[in-house]
Amino acid sequence: MELNDEYGKLSPRVRLGRRLRRLRERRGLSLRQLSDEVGGYSHSYLGRVELGEQLPSEALVNVLDEFFDTDDALAELLDLAHDKLIPDYSRKVVNQEPEAERIQVFSSSFVPALLQAEAYTREMFRKALLRETDAQLEERVATRMRRQRILERENPPYYWGIMDEAALARTIGDTGCMSGQLQHLLEIGVRHHVTVQVLPFSKGAYPAMGGSLILHTMPNGATVGSVESFASGELIEEPKRALELVRKFDVVRSMALSGEDSLDLIRSYLKEYEGDDDS
């Protein structure tokens, strides 16, 4: 079943909800009856999805696509809806992630997105997006967790993530949240296709202070870059400008601790956070 373009001017969230309502009504089902048919998802939850007030979980969408035999039409709309949650200035870069052969990221103040644990991501969004409801925050968390799947693929891109030591020292959430995040870094940092490095405070000033940069090496060998700061960003495709970002990343990489020393520093911070939890 192809996606119906009847609601082309509406958001994917609303289009998904309207599609679900039409499918349900064609079967002659009430929301309560549909709830019973698809494994007990509450009728109020299904109602919010139909009204476009809340995105469904991926698990629910998979159940609905199977139940209505829609050839993954709802799942496609869910993908589009998650895509809309990504800021315009970074959406094109994020959309390139699945195609990149290598991803290089530097962050000056927080753990890079693809290395974040779920609780850490949730707290980051909670502090940054003060006007959003809990449901909206959970949708953003789910979007970021979906992005991380590229590192779980059979043939993942090579990922090189560098962060300022400030990302380890600044407590996001509580000490339990930070402990979970650092444990996650230690687990992912030993994968053969992932390198995690930390730029220590002792190195002083460096390029890209106060912001972050992303470099994607595409299958044709081209490098596409992005620089981000507070609520803004810029895609850089022009070769000379992209080369300048590569140089900055190379300088930061040369100043950072080795992979093993970086993991040791992460372990030392983890002990401190775990000690705080025990006190």
UniProtKB/TrEMBL annotation:
It comes from Streptomyces varsoviensis. PROSITE patterns: HTH_CROC1 (PS50943). Residues 20-77 form the HTH cro/C1-type domain. The lineage of its organism: Bacteria, Bacillati, Actinomycetota, Actinomycetes, Kitasatosporales. This is DNA-binding protein. GO terms for molecular function: DNA binding. It comes from the Bacteria. Keywords: DNA-binding.
